[in-house]
Design goal:
By secondary structure, the protein is mainly α. Helix 1 runs antiparallel to helix 2, helix 2 packs antiparallel against helix 3 and helix 3 packs antiparallel against helix 4. It starts with 28 loop residues before the first helix and ends with a helix.
Length: 116
């Protein structure tokens, strides 16, 4: 993060923010579970269209399902969820037709790091 030299400034009140800031409401685990299900449905559509092979789609769907099950637990294992989603990202590398799904998994990883 860039820091500016503020010597000589004359202000009444100033607040300098840094790091990650989130505006809005954090997603609840139920919404994250819905998103994981939507991704699994998208994988089905890609596999049906022949854009991704059925074996890869099945492996990634399994990772999404395991992540969803972990989010349903009262005592969520954040590290386990992150590990699973990163595995899903790895499985999607090189599959150009699934780039959008990989990007969405990356966003889910970010939310889980922040809120779970």
């Amino acid at each position: 993060m860039t820091t500016f030299n503020q010597q000589g400034q004359q202000v009444n009140h100033q607040y300098n923010s840094g790091g990650d800031m989130f505006f809005g409401h954090p997603p609840d685990p139920g919404k994250l579970i819905e998103q994981l299900s939507a991704l699994a449905a998208r994988l089905d559509a890609l596999a049906a269209a022949g854009s991704i092979d059925a074996t890869s789609a099945g492996q990634i769907k399994e990772v999404l399902q395991q992540s969803s099950e972990e989010l349903k637990r009262p005592e969520k294992n954040k590290n386990r969820i992150l590990q699973l989603l990163k595995k899903g990202e790895e499985l999607l590398k090189g599959v150009s037709s699934a780039a959008g799904i990989a990007g969405y998994i990356e966003k889910l990883i970010h939310y889980i790091k922040m809120f779970v």
